[in-house]
Design a protein that fits this description.
- Helix 1 packs across helix 2, helix 2 packs parallel to helix 3 and helix 8 crosses helix 9.
- This protein has a single domain, classed as TIM Barrel, CATH 3.20.20.20.
- It is globular, with a radius of gyration of 17 Å.
- The chain is built from 9 helices and 8 strands.
- By secondary structure, it is α/β, with parallel strands linked by helices.
- An 8-stranded parallel sheet has the order 6-5-4-3-2-1-8-7.
- The protein starts with 17 loop residues before the first strand and ends with a helix.
- The structure holds pterin-6-yl-methyl-monophosphate.
- Pterin-6-yl-methyl-monophosphate binds next to strand 1 and strand 5.
- The site of pterin-6-yl-methyl-monophosphate has 19 residues, from strand 1 and strand 5.
Length: about 280
């Protein structure tokens, strides 16, 4: 497994946040559902994202959109493994986006270097022991339950305080189970058990998540709350592929506050935006 030799935390030579490009091998993700479902299309897409400048490719075989049903483990393995193997074989740094230890283990054996678990290990009791054993970087996201009914848990008195509290307790639990502190990345989980207003408030106060003292990954890309801006009430949100400019704006915000990385579908527009914002900031 490649994790033990990985220099971590990964940083870009140009100082911009690490850009994680999304490779969803699913028929039903809200953002790009079905587009890259065929193995060869997913591999081709991953290669394009690397050509656009992605630092990490995040390969996932389970849609986590609100209300989504889970695929079987066998189906998730079938979707993910050939894509991980091929992209890692090209030399790309691959993370596997999974809540299942069995899938994570097979992906690590196929060349993945990072585990990205939207449940932070809560969905499968075998996940944390696996990650500890393999000593690989672990992205732990704020999570309150599976997608089928997660939006019923989008209830907060103070979303920023509660997300920070739940995330820091989760990080402490992971460390107490043997995870090395410097292998951990935290993610506030935009869109997961959160309504649009919660996502906006969390973004505005992202500095509080950063204040927990871990590298922070921000995953707002193409999420529904970005598609509602400028759309009259009662009309449907903009389609997912029309949300990349809004995503670029959130990436600039995340970079300004010091996020470690951004997880995005369209890498080129994100990097264009990040480079532009920095050129303005650094101009005399
Ligand atoms: N969002 C999705 C899937 N995986 N992983 C992390 N760490 N953070 C996220 O915000 C996140 C994720 C859902 O979005 P997609 O369907 O576009 O992949």
């Amino acid at each position: 497994m490649s994790g033990t030799t990985l220099r971590w935390p990964l940083r870009r030579a140009d100082g911009l946040p690490v850009v994680m490009g999304v490779v969803n091998v699913t028929p039903d993700s809200f953002s790009d559902g079905g587009e890259w479902f065929e193995t060869s299309a997913a591999i081709q897409h991953g290669r394009e994202l690397v050509a656009q400048g992605a630092d990490i490719l995040d390969v996932g075989g389970e849609s986590t959109r609100p209300g989504a049903a889970r695929p079987s483990t066998a189906e998730e393995l079938r979707r993910v493994l050939p894509v991980v193997e091929s992209l890692a074989g090209d030399g790309a740094m691959v993370s596997v986006d999974t809540m299942r230890a069995e899938v994570a283990q097979a992906a690590l054996e196929a060349g993945a270097a990072i585990v990205n678990d939207v449940s932070s290990g809560l969905a499968d009791p075998a996940m944390v022991p696996l990650v500890v054993r393999c000593d690989v970087p672990f992205v732990a996201m704020h999570w309150r339950g599976h997608s089928a009914d997660m939006q019923s848990r989008a209830v907060y008195d103070n979303v920023v305080a509660e997300v920070c509290d739940e995330l820091s307790k989760r990080a402490a639990a992971l460390v107490s189970q043997g995870m090395s502190r410097d292998r951990l990345v935290l993610d506030p989980g935009f869109g997961f058990a959160k309504l649009a207003a919660h996502n906006w408030t969390l973004l505005r106060h992202l500095d509080r998540v950063l204040g927990l003292g871990y590298p922070v990954l921000v995953g707002t890309s193409r999420k529904a709350f970005l598609g509602r801006l400028g759309v009259p009430a009662g009309h449907p949100p903009r389609p997912a592929h029309e949300r990349d400019s809004a995503t670029a704006a959130t990436s600039i915000h995340a970079a300004r506050l010091g996020a470690w990385g951004v997880r995005v579908h369209h890498v080129r527009s994100t990097l264009d935006a990040l480079r532009t914002a920095r050129a303005i900031q650094e101009a005399p």
